[in-house]
Design goal:
Chain lengths: ~350, ~325
């Protein structure tokens, strides 16, 4: 694994949240707040291109990452901010990446859909639905081959289980018992299409076909997700191979912020209200004393204030370096116009 | 001196690199028994942890190799059929190739994709006869097309050691080539450095892959009347533009022979760049497959689509004003 080369240090140290319940709540609150700030920055045209908000699904990122070690790795999706933050990326540099700044995780070369931080084990968010699943499988295989007990975890949506490459990857992972945790985030929709209209059979059935143990987990409960992931991770570390977790949740917001202008109708206000009623922030918040919760909220708000300021104030990349990093070997591309 | 065949050169290159570097591993269909011969003996030498027979899952194992590369390995993938590259264009062009830039330089993807038997294979028909190197040069994936056993060895070694994805096309028309050489002299060949196989003063023929041998034959035929320089770029991306410019300084005339489709093929790029930037005293010419060609089955139809020595000879004569 190559180390993170981007130089900037974290702008803040992580908060000391020794209590696991409080730590989970903090991650959910951090992701929730980050998404809200990011949507504001989209509206303010500081973040261009828009984002796919993760709101409503935060328990999945928080719970899964709580069961991983820092040296384990994840691959993420087009809806990836939550995963990236939960795995430990600096919120300020993540926000700066969304804003296309030189200080961003990817030096402004990736943006929302490609946020990557190899220093904390994020092998990249991926904008092609399902594409990262075989990548995670390959990384996991390489860990085992190196004699380590590191694992890889791959997130993908309910829409991705209709992608051939995902099912091919299930086959390889099961066949070769790679230390992989497969996390399907079933948020009810693939853009406008309901899961039941795109998935024949069932998501668990996909795994069963390859002999991969699978279960459905309440993806609005961070502790349920963490406990299920811990079992899957233990299984992977022991050499027994992959496990699939179907984590169910409801996407509170638009598929993409573009919906705020285009306004496609594919669900009713009543349905959205019912979905929002089961809120991971409340599920976990209810497990804490009010004072603890308030203290975490205040700390997270401050952290995000600083992240937004950092992103807004960071320099834009120099256009002269537009094709820097195109080749790891430093090969320079020919210019387009001379 | 021993004769080295092109396939044996590929095989040696992989074996030598696996010996040299623990991180090198091989994925592919039937690589254990080595149906293409390129991986012969490797399973026995290096074991199933480094030489993996994969299920018929090109898309998954291509990105699986990317993941393994992100975690520190140097996988080589063998594809049985060049058209399989169409199946995995997403995994190579849209994933492996884009990782370095999109992550802002956080990582590298040292994967080699080996195609032992690209191009027409004597009537294997439409889905087995593509030679899609131009597509990879177009997207900027490093692309090598060696013509000789020594270059096959040297370029494959370099590809495996390179920190970026590299596609190595071994044309089926070159697999039978044998060369007398001192095995101790086998050495890496850098990407982006062409090779002049024959010096000449009247016209430069740029020939890609197995067509180098046709170009040499045509040059020999014309020896009394036209002095032909045969330039083999060896890699199409990066391309040795300065080597070509130097050759055109000497000859001022250019003919490209390229066994890929005409529109948007590498031949068009070579001609365009020469016209923009280099010394030309006559209009450049191209000999290629037809536009959008799909190679038909019947032998005479298949051959009718591939560049021929007669076409090349006619193009050379036209370029020097003798045609
Ligand atoms: C292979 C592919 N096809 C189509 C798209 C366009 N697209 C982006 S997100 C999306 C829906 C994905 O649904 P799902 O996997 O359930 O994830 P969710 O958006 O619900 O998180 C689509 C169709 C894409 N990015 N990649």
């Amino acid at each position: 694994m190559t180390d993170r080369t981007a130089g900037a240090d974290r702008t803040t140290a992580p908060a000391p949240t020794a209590d696991p319940a409080a730590a989970l709540y903090r991650t959910v609150a951090l992701v929730r707040g980050f998404e809200q700030r990011a949507v504001e920055l989209v509206r303010a045209k500081v973040v261009l291109g828009g984002i796919h908000p993760y709101t409503g699904q935060e328990a999945i990122a928080a719970g899964t990452c709580a069961a991983l070690r820092p040296d384990d790795v994840i691959t993420s999706t087009h809806r990836g901010h939550g995963h990236v933050l939960a795995k430990g990326a600096d919120p300020a540099r993540t926000m700066a990446e969304l804003a296309g700044r030189a200080t961003g995780l990817n030096r402004g070369r990736g943006g929302s859909m490609h946020a990557a931080d190899f220093g904390v084990g994020v092998l990249g968010a991926n904008a092609v639905v399902g594409a990262a699943v075989p990548i995670a499988a390959g990384a996991a295989w390489a860990f085992r081959r190196a004699g380590s007990d590191r694992v890889a975890l791959s997130y993908f949506g309910d829409g991705a289980v209709s992608q051939g490459v995902v099912l091919e990857a299930f086959n390889l992972a099961a066949l070769w018992r790679v230390p992989l945790v497969l996390v399907c985030e079933n948020n009810g929709f693939a853009t406008s299409m309901r899961t039941e209209d795109t998935v024949a059979g069932s998501i668990l059935g996909r795994a069963a076909a390859f002999g991969i143990p699978a279960r459905t987990v309440d993806g609005t409960d961070p502790e349920a997700v963490r406990d299920a992931t811990a079992e899957a991770v233990a299984r992977a570390r022991s050499g027994a191979g992959p496990t699939l977790l179907e984590c169910t949740a409801y996407r509170f917001d638009a598929h993409h912020t573009w919906e705020h202008t285009a306004r496609p109708r594919y669900r009713t206000d009543a349905e959205v209200a019912a979905g929002r009623a089961r809120d991971p922030l409340e599920v976990q918040g209810a497990r804490l004393p009010a004072a603890t919760r308030a203290a975490i909220d205040a700390e997270v708000a401050q952290l995000l204030d600083r992240a937004v300021r950092f992103a807004r104030e960071s320099p834009h990349p120099d256009p002269a370096g537009a094709l820097d990093h195109l080749y790891a070997t430093g090969l320079r591309a020919r210019a387009g116009a001379r | 001196m021993p004769k080295l065949s092109y396939l044996k050169a590929l095989n040696r290159a992989i074996g030598d690199e696996m010996d040299r570097d623990e991180a090198v591993c091989v994925f592919g269909e039937d690589v254990g028994v080595a149906v293409t011969h390129a991986t012969a003996g490797l399973l026995k030498r290096f074991g199933p942890d480094r030489v993996l027979d994969t299920p018929i899952s090109e898309q998954a194992f291509t990105s699986f190799a990317t993941g393994a590369a992100l975690a520190g390995l140097r996988p080589l993938i063998e594809f049985q059929i060049p058209a399989l590259l169409f199946l995995v264009f997403e995994q190579i062009a849209n994933q492996a190739h884009k990782f370095s830039l999109m992550t802002g330089g956080q990582t590298r993807v040292p994967v080699t994709y080996l195609l032992p038997g690209s191009g027409s294979r004597e009537s294997w028909a439409g889905q087995h006869s593509d030679h899609p190197y131009s597509l990879f040069a177009h997207v900027g994936v490093k692309t090598a097309v060696p013509a000789t056993p020594a270059d096959a060895y040297g370029l494959l070694v370099t590809a495996i050691r390179d920190d970026d994805p590299v596609v190595v096309f071994a044309p089926s028309g070159a697999l039978g080539v044998r060369e007398d050489l001192d095995l101790a002299a086998l050495a890496p060949v850098p990407l982006g450095v062409g090779r002049i196989h024959r010096r000449g003063t009247d016209v430069t023929v740029v020939a890609v892959g197995h067509l180098v041998h046709d170009a040499l034959a045509v040059a020999e035929d014309l020896a009394g009347t036209v002095s032909v320089e045969v330039f083999d770029p060896r890699t199409l991306f990066p391309f040795d533009w300065s080597g070509l410019a130097a050759s055109l300084e000497r000859t001022g005339r250019l003919v490209v022979v390229d066994d890929s489709n005409r529109s948007c093929g590498i031949g068009g790029e070579i001609v365009a760049t020469a016209a923009e930037e280099m010394r030309l005293i006559a209009p450049p010419r191209r000999v290629t497959r037809p536009d959008g060609a799909v190679l038909p089955f019947a032998r005479e139809l298949d051959l009718a689509c591939q560049p021929t020595r007669a076409q090349l000879r006619a193009a050379v004569e036209k370029a020097v004003g003798a045609g």
